[in-house]
Write a structure and sequence with these properties.
395 residues; FAD/NAD(P)-binding domain; six-stranded mixed sheet; 20 strands; binds 8-demethyl-8-dimethylamino-flavin-adenine-dinucleotide
Length: 395
């Protein structure tokens, strides 16, 4: 078994296969140190924690992660808080930086005797329609390598080799560019509020998410195409404070901005998630906009489904799980896509690009009024709040 990519999907899969005695190797383009410093997700849903618990992979998360269950919305109509642990199914998030989860999963996999080839870039998966696919890779020493496993798991993200290797006629791609960009920031500053903050402002969305007691993630709706470095730190903080209405609800705790990345909000799903001997999981299978913080959670869920199906096939000779893998994942993928799409509509104003706003056209004003009504419904309707909580923290 060859797994491409040592992100959350590849490492959960690797750990589960190893525990079931399935021989596997993970090919990872990055060096080990780079994996531990790649800050991305932080909000893990209840089902993700249950999956990691089930397989003994959640020790670090329980030791260092923090439970989280409140979000606060701010807009021109005031602010309100939703304590979602008291709504829906009563589930909460655990805040645990993705790079720490990856470091834990990697350490556990290596301690159990797992093999990872760092610095090894998969180039192509050939012959996936047969039962001995070939993975062509470039090894850490720059030399070409060829692997001939029974199955290949493509957990190498959106731009990985697995996706590129799928013949166009074998898959259908559903794609949406939401036309919105975020500047994703990591600040060396304690959280400014005890909740996830979602601020809708005529100048655009701003978001606040705790990561650790010393580090906070902020998001700023950003002019598509504008470079991440084009604003000074002071201008960024002033804009965050303005959109989050700090003058009304309390100041932001400022600090050095240590990471800035422009994220274009896009959704992308390939169907099916299997082509012969090649399976896709995580971002390689479906890309979600980070608006609902679901990507890493789906990656873990898909990795478990794939691992169980592979073990059934390779150890017990039962291929049924592999046959239904794609359909089982896609149910979850589309629920998550639908909710992220709903969040995008809730949080953005078409006029908000960090610019002056302006009066807007009839269409943008219509969209704004819908957004206000949606937020108002979330503020006042218990049924709507239960629905939100269930989708926000679940999968
Ligand atoms: P990853 O984590 O991208 O890992 C893929 C791995 O494959 C390697 N790779 C290759 N290796 C060999 N050969 C090749 N050709 C290769 N090409 C790539 C890469 O080096 C890498 O190690 O994918 P995976 O495992 O599918 O995990 C997906 C998650 O990383 C992603 O969905 C989340 O980070 C999305 N996301 C969030 N998800 C959540 O569930 N909760 C959140 O709070 C959350 N916040 C976020 C996010 C994503 C963000 N960005 C950067 C888009 C916040 C942000 C800002």
């Amino acid at each position: 078994m060859v797994v491409l990519g040592a992100g959350p999907a590849g490492l959960v899969l690797g750990n589960l296969l190893l525990a079931a005695g399935v021989d596997c190797v993970i090919l990872e383009r990055a060096e080990r140190g780079d994996l531990a410093s790649r800050a991305r997700a932080g909000f893990l849903g209840a089902e993700t924690v249950r999956i990691l618990d089930r397989h003994g992979l959640a020790e670090g998360l329980h030791r260092h992660g923090r439970p989280h269950a409140v979000c606060e919305f701010r807009s021109e109509d005031g602010r309100f808080r939703l304590d979602y642990a008291g709504l829906g199914r009563g589930d909460r998030h655990t805040v645990y930086p993705q790079q720490d989860l990856v470091a834990d999963l990697l350490a556990q996999y290596l301690d159990a005797g797992g093999r990872v080839r760092f610095g090894t870039e998969a180039r192509a998966v050939l012959g996936a329609d047969g039962d001995r696919p070939t993975v062509e890779a470039r090894g850490a020493d720059g030399r070409p390598e060829r692997w001939r496993p029974r199955y290949v798991a493509g957990c190498d993200g959106r731009h990985g080799a697995a996706r590129r290797s799928l013949p166009p006629q074998a898959v259908r791609r559903r794609h949406r560019d939401h036309g919105v960009s975020w500047l994703a920031l990591l600040a060396e500053a304690p959280p400014s509020l005890d909740a996830v903050g979602y601020a809708v402002h005529e100048r655009g969305f701003a978001g606040h998410m705790a990561r650790t007691p010393e580090v906070t993630r902020y998001y700023l709706q950003w002019q598509p195409g504008e470079a991440a470095g084009s604003w000074s730190e002071e201008r960024i903080w002033d804009e965050l404070a303005l959109r989050m209405r700090a003058a009304d609800y309390g100041p932001l705790r400022r600090g050095r901005i240590v990471q800035r990345t422009v994220v274009d909000l896009e959704s992308d799903v390939l169907e099916p998630l299997r082509h012969g001997s090649l399976f896709l999981a995580g971002d390689a299978a479906s890309l979600l906009s980070p608006s609902a913080a679901k990507g890493a959670n789906l990656a873990v869920l898909e990795a478990e489904l794939l691992a169980l199906a592979l073990v059934d096939d390779l150890v017990h000779g039962d291929p049924a799980g592999l046959d239904s893998y794609s359909a089982a994942c896609l149910d979850h993928v589309w629920r998550a896509q639908e909710f992220s799409h709903w969040m995008i509509q809730l949080l953005h104003t078409p006029r908000g690009t960090g610019g002056a706003g302006g009066e807007g056209t009839g269409e943008t004003l219509f969209h704004d009024a819908l957004r206000r009504s949606r937020l108002q419904s979330l503020r006042t309707s218990r049924t709507h709040q239960d629905w939100f909580a269930e989708n926000y923290v679940g999968l």
